[in-house]
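---------- Forwarded message ----------

FYI, see the calreticulin AND calnexin record below. Original note from H. follows.
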Amino acid sequence: MLIRRNLVVILLIVFMFGPDMCGTQTKKLHVILSYQGQNYPIKKDLQCETDKLTHFYTFILRPDASYSVLVDNRERESGTMYTDWDILPPPKIKDTKAKKPADWDDREYIEDPNDVKPEGYDSIPREIPDPKAKEPDEWDEEDDGIWRPPKIPNPAYKGPWKRKVCIHGQSLKMILTFMC
């Protein structure tokens, strides 16, 4: 059963699943979905185990229309209802007449046009004098000159300023359309 409450779409799907071993010819694994009184067998040819041991078969149908078939808790087959059954229409139907506008921007991300360089950003030095450094006791200004502490990387310096990056409006529209 597939229930998508966010789209208010409720599909009641009944399924028949399991191995079919009749005589010496038929040794297959059935996965048949029944929707609105019509049976839809899986398009793939799934073989069941043929040894004399007991096996554990599992069919998982997820809300996103994907599925998995497990035999003894190991995935044997997986896919989607869109590709492996004729029960659902394809998720996207290509419109052959649709064309991308000439001014369409393909970039997924762009620089944020509202991002402004902070005032004084360019005046932040790369290095600053080490605040923990002390003038050596032996330092003589007459002989050695004016003592200057060694420089260390400035934790406030973040490199050359760059605008923040945001998702492009056209990409965002496509994502929101796909999600709805």
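H. also flagged this: The first strand starts at residue 2 and ends at 4.
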